[in-house]
Amino acid sequence: MLEFVAQNEPACVPQLRRHVRDFLHTLRVDPSTTYDILLATDEAAANAVAHGRSDHGGIVRLRCSTEGGCVVVAIADEGAGFDPASVEMHQLPSWRSQGGRGLYLVRELMDEVQIDASPRGTVIQMKRHVELPRSGAVPIPDV
């Protein structure tokens, strides 16, 4: 498991991405799946920075783990929270709308998305099924 805490400011987004990338690299997750998980992480982290700041700025928490055959990435902020039911995540918003694309992308890229929001902050937990190499397995070279 990986846990990381950063000040809630725009500079934390690439830090979170780097930690998730390193975590996925350690697990030897394939590049295509890694790309999807990193893009979902970017969107969730950007939302935490844009909407999850408290009066004193606050922090963003990252937790990465594995659960069964899934990678789990959770990002938490200390903002005022929001009603997840008020955001349409099942269809791409109109190009004229002022937001909503980030959560749509997260939902499309990940297998499961859970959002817990309260006046003390928001946690978005994202799961993606991955093919983890068996320990001790040696790849067979292509002929």
Task: Note poorly predicted spans.
Answer: 137-141
Anisotropy-based shape? globular
Helix amount = 25-40%
Order of helical and strand elements: EHHEEHEE
What's the rounded overall pLDDT mean? Answer: 84
- Strand percentage, roughly? 25-35%
Describe, in plain words, how this protein is organized in 3D.
- The protein has 143 residues and is of the alpha+beta class.
- The chain has a single domain (2-129), classed as 2-Layer Sandwich (Heat Shock Protein 90).
- Helices cover 32% and strands 27% of the residues.
- The protein has 3 helices and 5 strands, in the order E-H-H-E-E-H-E-E.
- The chain has a 5-stranded antiparallel sheet, covered by helices on one side.
- A hairpin with a 2-residue loop joins strand 2 (59-67) and strand 3.
- Helix 1 runs antiparallel to helix 2 (31-51) and helix 2 runs antiparallel to helix 3 (101-109).
- The longest helix is centred in the first third of the chain and has 21 residues, at 31-51.
- The N and C termini lie far apart (37 Å).
- Mean pLDDT is 84; it is low at 137-141.
Summarize the model shown.
The protein is α+β, with helices and mostly antiparallel strands. The chain has helices spanning 12-27, 31-51, 101-109, and strands at residues 2-7, 59-67, 70-76, 112-118, 121-129.
List keywords for this structure.
143 residues, alpha+beta, Heat Shock Protein 90, five-stranded antiparallel beta sheet, 5 strands, disordered C terminus
